[in-house]
Each structure stands twice: as structure tokens, then as C-alpha cells.
Amino acid sequence: MMLRIKRVPTVVSNYQKDETEETARRSGGCGKNCLRSCCIPEAKIPLYAFKKLTKIDAENDVLAIEEKEPPVAFLDSLILGEWEDRMQRGLFRYDVTACETKVIPGEYGFIAQLNEGRHLRKRPTEFRVDKVLQPFDGNKFNFTKVGQEEVLFQFEASEDGEVQFYPSAQIDVESAPSVVAINVSPIEYGHVLLIPRILECLPQRIDHESFLLALYMAVEAGNPYFRLGYNSLGAFATINHLHFQAYYLAVPFPIEKAPTKKIATLNDEVLISELLNYPVRGLVFKGGDTLQDLSDAVSDACICLQENNIPYNVLISDCGKRIFLLPQCYAEKQALGEVSPELLDTQVNPAVWEISGHMVLKRRKDYDEASDENAWRLLAEVSLSDERFCEVKELIFEAISNGEDIIENTADTMLKDPIEEKNTIPKRSHRTMVAGTQECVVQQ
Amino acid sequence: MSNMDSKLRLIQQSFNSRYSEWVREALDELSDNFTITDPSISGHPLVFASRSLLKMLSYSREEVIGQNGNIFQGPKTNRRTVMEIREAIREERGIQVNLVNYRKDGTPFWMLFHMSPVFGKEDGRVIHFVAVQVPITRRQRGNGGVRLSEEASGLNEIMFGSCRKEVDTNSVLELGRVLSSDSSSNVLDIEETCEASDFEKRRAANVFNSILTVLTHYSESTGRLVCGKRCSVPGVGYISSSLNISLGRIKQSFVLIDPHLPGLPIVYASDAFLKLTGYDRHEILGLNFAVLNGADTNTSSEYQIQEIIQNEQACTVRIVCYRKDKSSFWNSLHLSPVRNASGKIAYFVGVQMEEECKNMDRHGLSPEMRQLSTVGAVKVAVRSLSMAAGSSKS
């Protein structure tokens, strides 16, 4: 049985059409200035080449900081400047800064926004939510179909170890360029999409190289209020073409304020903690000898979830220093009719931003009545149960560590006879939910 | 290096304009560790560091004055705690947290960080933040009164013994060596939570009060009194300290105009604007942009600016502007409405571009793109910082 839900997809590009229109059109030259082979040879887009770091805490030498413009400010300026330019050119469907927004009073400071224009009054589309990995479908909308004016710049590693910027560069197809484009239905100022190796038309699934690219972007922007996010299929990604999202919001996200408990250290110094006192259960990654170490730990975990068909979201925060990994099950519950109509009516689809504590609400009533309790209640539905989360944690640790090099803090989750229990938990598909009889096990 | 010079000048002024000249000596007589920072200067730099603190951290005065307090942080400093401090600054309130700081030689240690704002008596603005640092010499279990702190694991209790000693340089280094050699680590490493004792907390509060007494006393003679609590409501058009800090990070020449006030006054001017025009901040705030007009300025351009503001549109105008020394320059002025969290227009931002200086910066961002990026940065700051107004914390 296939699980599906109906929802109105967010329009991220002015070239994104109805599903029916998509399949009716055939590819053939378009005269639309897109990014496919018909238009690419003429395309000239700025190119930002970042410097690859060797150490994760390679802070700028503070005593020299007055002498020159620090490179980290540059990407920040580029994104803001290009975005403002597109705003003044009228490329967005609405002015997001004209949308009322507030921090809900309370301990966590959930953020609510009243945005009636984000979701169109269109016919909802069906999305399959029971498969995290689905093959790329060229007939559906993908990012090669966006107009070039929606692309802000190309983003890739520099060849010579220095930051380079070319205001107008041809797209070199051979070099598998990655681009940053606008989201025409922004959640906040500066809402962009990072599309790794866009021309390769990768489906929405994380791989080591792409995740590292996303992490570099967070580091390069150097702004703790510029975060990147990722939604897997089944966790409210609507476009099956590999992409990350990012935007600016200069307040802390509730998830960033939640306390954590360290549960493991990898031997390359990556630290893994668990979220506490937060409606959604999740892991937090930080540290690492190098940025690549941190990146690989997280992507290993993501790949494990993907292969086990567990939908998840990822938040990259604090300039790439902290990464949140959140497995979820809301879409499945929705498809099985297990979510209360009250929650469904808010039409909040809990993707990475919502889970982080930033809710976009369509109805004035929901906005005015927004509270800590409401937000908590919605997000609690998204979370895996305790037992299921324990299982998933174990899967992840096994994938990351291959069973050996991990140092775990076995503080308060030790149980008797863990070895025997371990053999009875195979890698199962996430459809069979734990009924609560299985004890939570932690690897020794 | 002239950027550094003018910043140092601002730092000197930070004290000199507010307190009489013996204040530094008086502060130096206190034997405690503390820093004083000025949020109105871009980068929120240290304007004073006590002798005790410099000795404890092994820095010289020149190495720290002008830097942001984050130079004392490092890899083991808890990021969430750093975020809490940032938010306290933004909300102009005090905070007391346990924090890992680093000496110049890279050794980390735990200390109780007690920060509190000092307000101007007459206008209620935050003048300085005072941060007292008390080294924590005893490790304790438990959450204490600090909310949202990490839960102590049971292991903390076991390791009590080895931590109940003075945290001096040598023992910290030894602890470090033990950790790195023992990979199946059950040893409590510097990562774990550390809680200051009630004694240490009271001590920090007392030190702050002593500092405040000194500052209050020395502000009496300049007539520009300070106090520990906000005594008056900040005036209309006042830019909050947090917005000041955020705007201070933007390196371009720009002003904020308040379209709701009569005369359309400038309510914020960036350092770069002051440098470009030669004016001091207090000479510009409250005036209309027409202060930059002069003999050759087309009178219609003043009208143009007014019209742009009325139409609530973004626009660029070319006008002749005059510096304080009467020299003139062609200004490609870009104006844009800036909305706050209510969705309504709160300010207009005016970004200057001196036409003779159409130089690409080192990386090749065009002057027009730099102007737009300034608009973007201002929009983010104003929108975000007005969202938090309603939240209640601690």
C-alpha cells in the first residue's frame, strides 16, 4: 500500500507549473533563459569560490582583523545584495517583510508569522510519503527549469586556496556547478535554495559531497542567523531535485536553545548529543578535527536514515558549528489519518523550519492564538516515539562507527544484557512501528 | 590602519565623554576581574579591562582593548551559552552563566560570567555592559538555578574527588593530558557542565556593585549620570542597543530616517557615513538629510527624497552633497523603506555611494551591489530585532 497525502506545494520558482502542465510540455528549446542545454551556453552568472578550511575552528586571527575586510562578510553581502536586487525587480510573489511576525512569549520563544500569500488557493497535489528515496523524474518540475534571473550565483570550492569572485562567469558544465537561487515564496528575507551539482539532476538525497558544500556555505556566510535546512522526501520536501534551503532570521530558534545531553564522541572529535526538553527528539552534532569530519558524521547518519526509509530533517546552525538531525513521522501519521483535524486545519507542514520553531501560519486566527502550547502540541506529533527514537539512534551509531571507534557516555541508559537484545533488532523498515515491548538498547 | 585609529579614538571617547578622567585609576584599584564594553561602537568592543583580568588571562591591555569579548572563547566554550549572552546583550538585560574562557596560551578554564548593563540616567540608553568574571574553583553537580543548563550525568559525582582542587594552570593542563591519552574516557573532561557556588555568585554581584559605584561617582562630575537600572524611557526615535550593535556591523555609509517624525530626522548614522561626511554622531542625529545640502544642491532633490518616502518605494537619486568641511561630492543615494516585525514601515534607509570612488572592492562586488547588500542587512536587522520585543525571558 502506498501512502500519500494531498497538499498544495509551495511555489519556489516563477517557472514552476501545475503537475498536469509539466507532463504535457515536452522538453525542447524554450526561449526562457533556463538552465538546460537550450539556454546554458549563453548563461553568465556570478561565481563565488570559497576557500577550503583545514581546521574547523580556524577563527580569523583577531589581532589582524582590522587590517582587511574579512572574507566571511563577503558571501553574506553577496547573498543579501543579490536578493534585494531580485526583490526590487519584482521576482518574488509577495514582500515577506510585510508579513507580520512575532516571537511568542514563553520559555522557548517559538516564532510565528502570518503569511496568507505563501500557499496558493490551488488544487492540492498528491505526494508519496512512504518512500524517502525516489528516482529523479525529469518530467516533473526541477531546478534546471528555473529562469536564470532567479539564480543568484554559482558556489564552489576555489582552486587556489583563496576566496575568488567573478561577477560574471560562464557556467562550466564540466565542472558540475552548484548554484544558489531564490525561493519566490520566501519564508523570510534572503530565503534561497542551494542546489548542488544542479545539472546532474540528483534526486533529493544527501551524499557526502553535497552536505559538505552546504556546510561550507554556512561557514562562509559567517552569520549565526543564516541557517541552512534540508527536508528529505516524506519529511515535506516537495521537489525531488537535491536542494538545501537557507534564510536570515536574527533571533535564536527554539531548537537552538534547547538543552542537550552528550551521548557520544567519535574518535575524530565529533560530539553527538541528544536534545532534551524539546517536543521533537533529535541529535545534535558538533566539533570534529576538521569540517569534513563533522560533515561526514552527519552525512553518514543521513544516508543511514535514507537507506532505512526514515524521513528526516536537518538544520545547520551557528555558522556550521552545530547541526541538528531530526527523524520524523508526521507525514506517515497524516496519511494514516492519525493527526487530529484541528492540527491539519492549520495547514502547517512540519518541515525543518517548523521543527526548529519557526511557524508560518495561513490564518489570522491561528496567528493571534499562537502559543507555546500549540506549537509544542503540533511538534510533538512530528517526533518519533521514545522507543522508536532509541532504535533509530542505534542504527545511526552503527552506521557512523561500524561498531567500534565510538566512545559513548552511558550515563543513564544502561540496561541489562544488552548483547542479547542487540541481535533481535534487525534493520527494519520504518513501517513496522515498535509497540513498546522492545527495550531501548545502547551499544556497549 | 586609520580604521583602527578612529576606533581607538571612539573607545577613548566612550569613557571620556561620560566619566571624569580619574575613573580608570579608580577602576584599576579594584582587585577583581572584569571588562567593560560599549555596544554603540561597531563590533561591541572592550573599552576597559581590569588589571586582574589581564593578569589572569595573560594578555596585555593593547591586545584586548578594541576587540570583541569573543576573543576569550574557544572550542570548548558552550555554543548555547554564547548564544544566551548574545541574546542578553540584544535585550539589554543582565545575565549570569558558567562559561569556559581561554587564556592567551590557549588553556581553558571555567568561570562565572556575570554581565549587567549600565544605563544613562537621563535617556535610559545602555551606555556600557560590565562583565565580571569569577574563576570557579570547585566543581559541583546539579542544575542549580541556571535554567536550560545541561543535565549533569551521574559520572560527575564519581569524578568529584579529582576536581575538588584549585583550578590553576598546571592542574588544568594535567587534566587535559589525562583526557587525551585515555580514549575510553570516563574521566570528566572540561566539556561537562560546571556550576558556580552561591558564594561565587554573590561575589560576582558584589563586584558589579562596586564597579557601578565607581562609575556612578565619576559620571557625576560630567553631569552625564549612569545607573544600574533603566530610570527613564528611551526617547522617540531611539535606536535600541541591540539594533545599534547589529547596524554597527555594516561597513557601508548609510543613515536611517524616521518617516513618522516631523522633519524626517536621521535616527542612525553609520561610522562610515560619519567618516565620509566629516560629522560627529551627535551633530547629525535628529537632523534632516538636508544637512548635507549646500550651494550646488538642486533644491528639487530634497523634494525628491520626500516624495520617495511618501511613495514608499525604493529609489536611487543623484545629488550633490557637502561634507562638514564644505567640500562636495556627487552622491548616488539609494533609499528604501524598511519594515519592522509588524510588517509596517519603520524607517527609510539611505545608502550613500560617492561617485568618484566607484572602486570595486578587492573581491569585485560592485558598488551598486554593495548598496543593495546594505539595504538587505538593515532590513534583516530591523525586522528581526523588533520581533523579540514581546518575548519574556528568565
UniProtKB/TrEMBL annotation, chain A:
InterPro entries on file: GDPGP (IPR026506), GDPGP1_C (IPR058865), GDPGP1_N (IPR058866)
The keyword Manganese belongs to this UniProt entry's keyword annotation: no
Residues covered by the GDPGP1-like N-terminal domain: 75-247
Keyword set, alphabetical order: Cytoplasm, Guanine-nucleotide releasing factor, Hydrolase, Nucleotide-binding, Nucleotidyltransferase, Transferase
Pfam families given in the database record: GDPGP1_C (PF26216), GDPGP1_N (PF26217)
Nucleotide-binding keyword on record: yes
Family: Belongs to the GDPGP1 family.
Name of the protein in question: GDP-L-galactose phosphorylase 1
Organism: Hibiscus syriacus
TrEMBL record, chain B:
UniProt keyword terms in alphabetical order: Chromophore, Flavoprotein, FMN, Photoreceptor protein, Receptor, Sensory transduction
Segments traversing the membrane: none
Keyword match tRNA processing: no
Domain of life assignment: Eukaryota
Record GO terms (molecular function): photoreceptor activity
Coiled coil: none
UniProt cross-references to PROSITE patterns, sorted A to Z: PAC, PAS
Organism: Hibiscus syriacus (Rose of Sharon)
UniProt keyword Flavoprotein present: yes
Domain PAC: 93-148
Protein name: Protein TWIN LOV 1
A biological process term (GO) from this entry: response to blue light
